[in-house]
C-alpha cells in the first residue's frame, strides 16, 4: 500500500513537472516567433511587411525620415570602411541569409521619392558601424516598434493560452471578476434603493396628502326659504356642509354674502364667473356652486301647474379642470367631489325630500301635487363643468411620456459628435473650442426639436388650441429651449465623467431622468414637500408651458416657467468653459497614464527581443 502511494505521488509530480516544462516550452516558442517576426535588424523590412499585411497607406513621417537617414548613413559609412580594408565582395554575402536593408516598396517610405540606393547586404555589415551610428539606428528601430506595439498583428502572436475558467492559472483573474461583479451589483442595488425610490415616493401615501387639495363651496341660497306666502322651510342645501366635511379634501364653504365681500362681486352672474376664474387661475382645484332659487324651483315643480320638473343640474354645478393634471386629476382628486355628490344624493332622496313633502302636506292639499314631477324630482345629480378638459388621449405623448424621450434625445448629439469633439480639441484653442461646442450643440438641438415637434404634427395634434396659428412655432421654440436647458446639464456632467468614469454615464442619465420625472408627473399637492424641488427642474417647467399650449390653461406662470428654463441655459453655459478645461486636464492625465502604460509594455517587449 505504501509503495503504491509513493508511486502515485511520483507520477503526479512527474505530470506536474512535465506540464510546467510544456508551458515553458510554449512560452519560449511564442517568444521565438515574436523574435523571428519582429526582431530582425532591418526595421524597414518590418515596415514593408506591415504595410503589405495591414494595408497602411503611410507611417509616422518622423520615424520614416529618421530610418531613411540612419539607414543611408550606416550603409555609406560601413561600405567606406570595408573598401578601405579591402573586404568588399563584388557579389556580397550569401544570398540565403537575412538582408536587413533589402529593397523596400515606396509605400514603406512615405514621403521619399523611392527606395534607398545604398543598402546593407546582411547583419554583419553593421559590425563596422560606430556607436553613434548604432544608437541612431536603434532609435529609429525603437520608433518603429513603438508604432506597431499596439497592432493586432503583434498582439495576436502573444495571446495567452486559453483554458477553463477554474484553472489555477486564472486565480488572479477570477478574483478580479468576483470583485467587479460584487461592486457592480452593489452599485446597481444602491442606485435602485436611492434613485428609484424618488420615483416610487412620488405616489406614496397620496391619500395622506389629500388634505392639501383645496376646494370651495359657495351656497348662494339662504338657509331658510319662504315659499307660497308665509310658508317657510329649510333650503335644499341646508345640510350640504355636513357632507362636504366628510371629504378628505380641504373645503372652504361660503354663503353669498361672504363671497361677495371677499372677492368684491355684486350679483349671481359675477359670483358664477368668479368661481370659474378661481379654478382657471389654479387658486383651487375644484369648486361646488349651489345657485339661488333651488328650493323655490323644487316647490314650484310640485305645486305650480305647467312648471317643469326639478332639475338639480341647473342649480348644483361642480367646476374643475381635468387639463390641469391629465394623468392624476380624474383618478385621485375628482372622486373627492363625487363622494360629496353621492352622500348628498342619499340624504336628499331618503331624508330631505320626504320631510319636504311632509311639510307641504301639512298645509296644502296632497291632491294638488304634480305626481309626474314628484317622480322626477328624486334624482339628485351635479352638473360637472370641466372648464379646460383633457380632450385627446394623444396629448399624453407631448405632455408626458414624450418628454422622457426628449430628454434622451439630448444625449444623441453628445454620442454622435464625441469622437469629432476629441479631434477638434487637439486643433482649436480653448476659446474657439468653447464657441465650436456651443455652436454644434445648440444647432443640433434646434434640428432635433424640429423633428421632435414634427412627430406630433404628423399625428394631427392641434397646436392652435391656445395661441392660434403660431402655436407650432411656439411649441418648437419652447422645445428647443428645453433641450438646451436639460442637454447643457447632460453635456457638462458627461464631459467630466467620460475620461475616468464612463460606466457612470448611464447612472447619471437615469438619475437625471428620474429626478425630473418624479417632480413633474405627480402634483405637488399629493406628495411630500421634498418634491417641491421640482419647481426648479426643467421638465416640470416645460410641462407647464406645454399644457398652456395644448390645453389653454392659465398663462400666469409662463414668465416663471420660461425664466427658469433660461436660468438653466445661463448656468450651464457659464459652467461650460470651466468644465471644458477640467475635462481637458483629466483627459491629458488619462492619456499620460495610458502612454506610460504603453511605454512600459513596449520596453518589456523590447527587452525580450534584445535578450535574443
Automatic annotation (TrEMBL):
Pfam families: DUF3533 (PF12051). GO terms for cellular component: membrane. The chain crosses the membrane at residues 177-200, 402-422, 434-461, 473-493, 505-525, 562-580. Residues 1-130 are annotated as: Disordered. Residues 185-573 form the DUF3533 domain. InterPro entries: DUF3533 (IPR022703), MNNG_permease-like (IPR053001). Keywords: Membrane, Transmembrane, Transmembrane helix. This is DUF3533 domain-containing protein. It comes from Huiozyma naganishii (strain ATCC MYA-139 / BCRC 22969 / CBS 8797 / KCTC 17520 / NBRC 10181 / NCYC 3082 / Yp74L-3).
